[in-house]
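Components:
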Amino acid sequence: MKQLLFGVFENAQSNDSGTATWRHPDNERIHFDSLEYWVNIAKICETGGIDWLFLADAWGWSEIDDVRPAICDVEALDLPRLDPSIVIAALLQSTKRLGLVITGSTLVEAPYSFVRRMATLDHLSKGRIGWNIVTTGTADTAADAFGQARVEHDERYKMAEDFIELSYKLFEGAWQPDAVERDRLGRYSDPEKVHRVFHEGPFFKCDGYGNSHYSPQGTPVLFQAGSSPRGLQFAGKHGECIFVSGDDTSIVAEQTRKIRAEAVLNGRDPYKDIKVICAFSCVVGDTKHQAYEKHQEILKHQNLDVAAASYAMFTGLDLSKYEPETKIKDLKTELSKTQILRFGDASVGEVLGNWHANGVRPEPFIGTPEQISDAMSYMAKAADLDGFMFTPMSQPSSTIDFVSKVLPIMRGNQVNTPNSKIQLLRQKLMGSLLPYLAESHPGASYRHLKSKNLK
Ligand code: RBF
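Structure:
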């Protein structure tokens, strides 16, 4: 069995899933605005053998018919949040091996400054940074907040293509990897290896020199999620670690198959160049019954009203207005299509029921450590996965349960796997010899443009 990869999903806000688990007395996530909370989580992940800590992000909020429901404030559904890249920067000193993945929006960020921020983190972390590329959840309210025009779903992916092409020029081409010599007797950097970037895209323009020099990984490891046809195309072309989600193994398997097929269409190796990572959640007990009771106790803290507002946050759709028998796949949105597609053939009533219990999180595995590890191993095999991203219900207790009880079984009782010695994130996740984008990746071609002016 291949060595699976494991990440922990987090989010710099109190509520990440559209449930009310933040109310649970064990859940320390309400202190998401304290450095102590994050240092503790990062240390648990690193010593527990987790490969990366992932920080999700969005800029917008939930609206139903242009009104933000009061329940959003009552349940901290969307706001307030903190800036994930600053949270990650604050964790660099207390971690050594842990990968740190930040969500960055191609809708509202400016590529030129965003690239500098990522390069800075990659330098200071010695190559442990990943970028989760998002066209942005809650895109409409985010666009309004930034004073931008709203952009439709597929157009947002065209924007992402343009954003990422300019980013490759800046990450890979502006400074050659060996441009900085730092030779006190000679020169600081070689002018032949520093290039001016020109970019005239449909959305973004740039004429100038890269602000930061080549970082340990060049381009941070590229994470991506998105199950719409356009999202899958983007993932198959640019993504290295692709995040999928779903309760039904066959739906996840189908997503994985499509992603690997897209990679092949783009001349990439469907296994070496692409790692498919599935969201999962679990409640661990000494017996199945005890785990089940623990889950019921967590569910007691849910709030019925939050489900509809939360689903609307992702899709703009108010499910309470539809007949329960309506098929979810017949509904249309210009926001997250993923949150329709992951439910396959289910009815609106079923999706609302599922959302009330789990929010955006997948249905948890409930049982003893052995039962959970068996279920995960089965799913990894059946859906052809490379790893999992754990979405804790209650922090840090869920992560402690997972890393101390389930992960050791999954790793053959070896927490310190060969991978845990590797420090650069791309080598650890992609199993590559070098920490840079693979030669088959579209971004790698910009590394080899040695002309003085990079177009
Ligand atoms: N928020 C999004 O805006 N887009 C997503 O695709 C997304 N996926 C998620 C997947 C999982 C498994 C979980 C637990 C949360 C997800 N979120 C997503 C919610 C996100 O963390 C955040 O709470 C919201 O974006 C509101 O700020």
